[in-house]
Structures are given as C-alpha cells and as structure tokens.
Design a protein that fits this description.
With 350 residues, the protein is α/β, with parallel strands linked by helices. It is built from 15 helices and 9 strands.
Length: 350
C-alpha cells in the first residue's frame, strides 16, 4: 500500500469514528435532471419540462473538496447524464485529479458519443429491463433496445475491452422474463448483470410525494404472485449457476434471493432484508440543481450554490445526522433497494 493509500484509509477510519467526513471515496453527480426514457417505475421523465443541469463552474467549485477528501470515483447518474451538452467538459475537469468516472445510462445515446465515451469515461452501467419487446415497453420508447444494442456494439468495435455492464430492476412487469433478461445481456455483449427490486415507497426519482397504494401495486408483484416470484428466483439460481460462478451475474444466489424477501416484506410477511450500508460516510450525491444528499433516498444536507460541499458535509447538522442515523430504524434505510458498504481498506484505486 502506498503512503497516499495508507493516509486515505486512516482518514476513512476517522470518518467512521467521528462522523466528520475526512475522506470521500465516492461522489455521485447528476449532470442533468431530464431523462430520454419514460420508464414505468420512475418519475424522473415527468420533470423534463423543468430542466436543471450542473455547469463546468459547479464542478470546478467541487474540485478542492474532492482533492482534499481523496475522491477516487465519480458516478455520473441522472436522469440521463449525456443530455448535458457539456458532459465531457465535466469529465475533463474531473480527470485532472485522475478520478475514475462511471456513467450510469439508459444507453440511448451511446452510439452518438462513442468516441468521447471511450476517451473520458472508464466504464458504463446501462439499464436493461427485458428482451427487445419488453425493454421497449417498460421504457415506453420504441427502439430503445435497438439503440442500446447499437451503442454497445459500436463502443466494443472501437475498444473491445471497454467495460459495459447492466443493471436490471426486477418487478411485477418483468420477473417472469428473468431468464430472457440474462440471455439478452449476454447477447448484447455486456460483461456483467446485476439485479435489484423496485423502489416504490420513497420520494426519490422525482416523486413530489411517495406513490399511493394503487400506483405502488402497478410495480409491486401482488401477494398472490409472490410464490411464482420465489419459483422464478430458484429457477434462475439453478439454470444459470455457471454465470454466478464466473461473475457474469454480480449477486450471489443468497443475495438474489433477497429480492423475493424484499417483496414479501412489502406485505408484512417477513422483515425487510438486512442491509449493511455506510453510504452517508463514504459517498454523497450532488443533484442537477446543486442539492446535496447523503444518498438518493435521504434528506438534503444543503446546496452547493449556497455553501461549499465540504462545509455542507461537515456542518453541525450533517454530523449530527450521521451520528444519529440508525439504519435499522430509519424507514428509508429499512426499505432501501440500493445500498453501499465500502470498507476503509477497500481502496478503489488499487
């Protein structure tokens, strides 16, 4: 371990001990508030008329904090980050500090930006909802799958070892197609696929307020469908065992089974699966309007247009929030579908 890595590790231990951010290995930026899909399980696209985006000056203003706190990776999320006309300028600013950039994308614009993506982005995670017909249906965009496929193929034609993986939200509309989704990921030439349940209870993803029960049940598997979901999970575990073994499926069989437990918990049949998460201590989210959050699902800590990021993260209120956060009791944490547990010795640059 280099001296710089050792210092960074020590600072991350101090962060966990004191609740004051001394190191910030991961930052999630949302360069643009809009999206080019209209997914049934997400409301981000409903705010497309009220556009917000991060500017180069915003990223420049973050760089002092990212440098001092040793940020190693930035995830460009959204909305669709590539809708920001200055996206690659933002990447160039981050690359001055040799920060790894991961793009989370719908995949709709990959072909148009293939050359710049290879130049400025280290890896891409695309969303995949099913085979071609189902993916287009859930995305509510005709040709979405075709455009995703064309983008992946073009990037891999230009740079065969460029890492593109996918993430699939499993829910009522696609769980029966789980095997077809895995086969589609392989056919697209993606290097890995991961799965998570749908969030239907939080105010994330541009929800002015949490969904009501009828809206939730458009996405939640019904109580009567839960046995079928459990059978499908076991089918996937058995049929695709080699893909678990070689890492093409990111989750272990045990973790995949937690998707069934999660949906059963929505009906009070069991507790929500236990999650070990330290996201508020190792990462932060900066939204397109400058809002800073500990993660996608927790309340705002401030805004970078009003105070510097480091001052926001280490304000008395933010420190008190982390100190008092009981993830076993906080409703957003208990119901969370996407969590992070990054240990101090896990150096993203190693």
């Amino acid at each position: 371990m280099s001296a710089a890595s050792l210092i960074h590790t020590i600072q991350r231990y101090r962060t966990l001990q004191t609740d004051r951010i001394k190191a910030l290995p991961i930052v999630i930026l949302m360069p643009h508030s809009a999206c080019n899909c209209r997914c049934v399980m997400c409301d981000i696209w409903k705010g497309n008329h009220n556009l917000k985006q991060l500017k180069a000056s915003d990223i420049e203003g973050l760089m002092g904090t990212l440098r001092r706190l040793g940020t190693q990776q930035v995830l460009m999320s959204g909305g669709e980050a590539l809708l920001n006309p200055n996206f690659f300028q933002l990447c160039a600013i981050l690359k001055r500090e040799d920060i790894r950039i991961t793009l989370l994308s719908t995949g709709m614009s990959l072909a148009r930006h293939a050359d710049n993506l290879i130049l400025w982005v280290d890896d891409i995670i695309v969303s995949l909802d099913g085979d071609e017909a189902l993916h287009d249906s859930i995305r509510n965009i005709r040709g979405a799958y075709r455009r995703l496929s064309e983008g992946v193929q073009l990037i891999h034609h230009r740079k065969p070892d460029f890492r593109i993986t996918c993430r699939t939200v499993i829910h009522r509309l696609n769980f029966r197609s789980w095997p077809a989704i895995i086969r589609s990921a392989a056919a697209l030439g993606l290097q890995q696929i991961s799965f998570l349940p749908a969030d239907v209870t939080s105010e994330a993803f541009n929800r002015a307020e949490p969904w009501d029960q009828p809206r939730q049940h458009e996405i939640l598997p019904s109580r009567e469908e839960l046995p079928e979901l459990q059978v499908m999970i076991q089918t996937v575990i058995k049929e695709f065992k080699p893909l678990f073994d070689n890492g093409f499926i990111a989750e272990s069989p045990a973790k995949l089974s937690k998707i069934g437990e999660y949906y059963s918990a929505a009906y009070g049949l069991n507790p929500y699966p236990y999650k070990k998460c330290n996201a508020p201590w190792v990462s932060t989210v900066v939204e397109a309007d400058g809002t800073v959050r500990p993660c996608f699902f927790l309340p705002s800590l401030g805004n970078i247009h009003e105070k510097p990021l480091e001052e926001i993260l280490n304000s008395p209120e933010a420190i008190a929030f982390r100190k008092g956060l009981d993830m076993d009791k906080n409703d957003a944490c208990v119901r969370c579908v996407c969590y992070l547990n990054l240990q101090p010795r896990n150096n993203l640059n190693d």
